[in-house]
Write a structure and sequence with these properties.
Elements lengths: L2 H34 L2 H20 L4 H7 L4 H33 L5 H8 L1 H5 L1 H12 L3 H24 L4 H22 L10 H35 L2 H34 L5 H28 L1 H9 L7 H15 L4 H7 L4 H21 L3 H27 L4 H28 L5 H23 L1 H16 L1
Helix pairs in contact: 1-8, 1-11, 1-20, 2-5, 2-9, 2-10, 2-11, 3-7, 3-10, 4-5, 4-7, 4-10, 7-9, 8-9, 10-16, 11-12, 11-14, 11-15, 12-14, 12-18, 13-14, 13-19, 14-17, 16-17, 18-19, 19-20
Main location: membrane
Subcellular location: Cell membrane
Pfam family, one: Polysacc_synt_3
Length: 481
């Protein structure tokens, strides 16, 4: 394996270590909070956080990604991004503070005004550590990045749970988020002691903006795509429905989407180092696609098949309305995940405008389907996301074939192991879960989980042994280092 390959494997391994630990913390925290707070509370807070999340994706104008992609004059570029992020953060704080009453009126929820104004403080706090995080990613220093990633979640969990127990309700979630931002900044600076100055270099800014402006446009579209169903649900179906959807979405997001999002966090800076070697980029894309699907397929199918015991064990009896949603959302995420890491190749080769164009197509498909689907409550919303995923993924794969030069037959070969294992898992586990439906939910989950995992990886070992051996060797190589 080449030096670049070893660095990439090492980075991916540490990024997934951070992912596993952080999501473990989040799941435990969620299991506690859903027993302390009703769905309506999560719904009200989601109305505020959806606005903050939207602006947060726009906050650095894509300059952080431009800094990761840049290969020279890093100190000057880092200073410029740092200064720009601070100015932009102040701007978004002011905009959110002023717009809060109008946003609250739109959702028919007066309490959102003060919540938004408090949460907007994160726009001023986060820039003090965001460049440090980008620099850690740029240098593939994911072992150091583990410190702020896990630390901020532990602080957030502790603060939120203590306040929820003391009866602070929705404000326990708000204050917990603020504490997370403060902890993240402090720990990012501990992890990377890089001296930054508030100084904008016009030459550097122009160079960074050439990359970041199309990427910012994509972030704008992506933010809308990622949050629009929360806005539609909050506006039309109310706080309780939004609370149920937001928690269900968070479970699927953590266990399915984050598999490729976390990988992308390591892949983009790694691919940027081989941006002028198309054959290596193509090989990397196919390899990443294969292993992403090997992990995503069993998780997605597991969520679909065991949705009922998962909700009962993880969330509790007041969340039973989440079961049908949890059976549908993983389908949309699974379809959309196929070949999604192609976006990191586009960024690495300096063509983020492709992401913007595909984002525009995505939102053009999603909006009308979502507005129609919401008429049928949360199930209709989930079905609209599935239909959108099918249509947009068809477009994505056509672009992948043309831009990266991947053949359809190569892509099918990369997807074959996950398809083989997934078929075996479904055939064995589906009748099993119905056969033990009278057992306690925890027992159902344990039996189905162990049987499903054994069946999936057993099928891979019998029919796709080379993939398993190669993956195991890759992991062992990362661990040894």
């Amino acid at each position: 394996m080449s030096h670049a390959g070893r660095r990439t494997v090492h980075a991916v391994a540490w990024n997934y270590a951070s992912f596993a630990l952080s999501k473990g913390v989040v799941l435990i925290t969620m299991a506690i909070l859903t027993r302390l707070l009703p769905p309506e509370t999560f719904g009200i807070v989601s109305l505020a956080t959806v606005v903050i999340s939207y602006f947060s994706l726009l906050q650095d104008l894509g300059l952080g990604s431009a800094l990761i992609q840049q290969r020279s004059e890093v100190q000057e570029a880092a200073n410029t991004v740092y200064a720009a992020n601070l100015l932009i953060g102040i701007f978004f704080f002011a905009v959110t503070f002023a717009a809060a009453p109008a946003i609250a009126a739109f959702f028919h929820e007066p309490a959102v005004t003060f919540m938004l104004r408090i949460l907007a403080l994160t726009f001023v706090i986060d820039p003090f550590g965001s460049v440090h995080i980008a620099l850690l990613q740029r240098d593939l220093a994911f072992r150091k990045k583990l410190i702020p990633d896990i630390g901020r979640l532990l602080v957030k969990a502790a603060v939120t749970i203590v306040l929820a127990v003391k009866g602070y309700g929705a404000w326990s979630l708000i204050i917990g988020q603020l504490s997370s931002s403060v902890a993240g900044v402090v720990l990012a600076r501990v992890a990377l002691r890089w001296k930054l100055k508030i100084r904008i270099d016009k030459v550097q800014l122009n160079r960074l903006l050439k990359f970041s402006i199309p990427f910012m446009g994509f972030n704008l579209i992506n933010a809308l795509v990622s949050n629009i169903e929360f806005v539609v649900i909050g506006r039309t179906l109310g706080d309780a429905a939004l609370g149920i959807y937001s928690i269900t979405y968070r479970i699927v997001d953590m266990l399915v989407m984050n598999v490729w999002v976390v990988l992308a966090g390591a892949m983009f800076p790694a691919l940027a180092t081989i941006q002028h070697q198309p054959h290596l980029l193509r090989r990397a894309f196919l390899s990443v696609t294969q292993y992403v699907q090997v992990f995503i397929v069993p998780i997605s199918l597991g969520l679909i098949i065991t949705a009922e015991p998962i909700v009962k064990v993880l969330l509790g009896s007041q969340w039973l309305d989440a079961i049908p949603v949890l059976r549908l959302l993983p389908v949309a995420f699974l379809i959309f995940s196929i070949g999604t890491t192609a976006g990191d190749v586009y960024k690495a080769i300096g063509r983020p405008a492709l992401l913007l164009k595909m984002g525009i197509v995505h939102i053009a498909i999603l909006v009308p389907l979502l507005l129609y689907g919401v008429r049928y409550h949360l199930i209709g919303v989930a079905l609209s996301l599935i239909a959108t995923s099918v249509l947009i993924k068809t477009v994505h794969l056509v672009v992948v074939v043309r831009v990266i030069g991947v053949k359809v037959s190569e892509l099918m070969r990369a997807l074959r192991p996950a398809f083989v294992g997934g078929t075996a898992l479904t055939v064995v586990t589906t009748p099993l879960i119905y056969g033990i439906r009278d057992e306690p939910p925890a027992i159902q989950l344990l039996v189905a989980g162990v049987t499903g995992a054994a069946t999936y990886f057993g099928a891979l070992w019998l029919l796709e042994k080379e993939v398993v051996i190669k993956g195991a060797n890759t992991i062992l190589d990362a661990v040894r280092r």
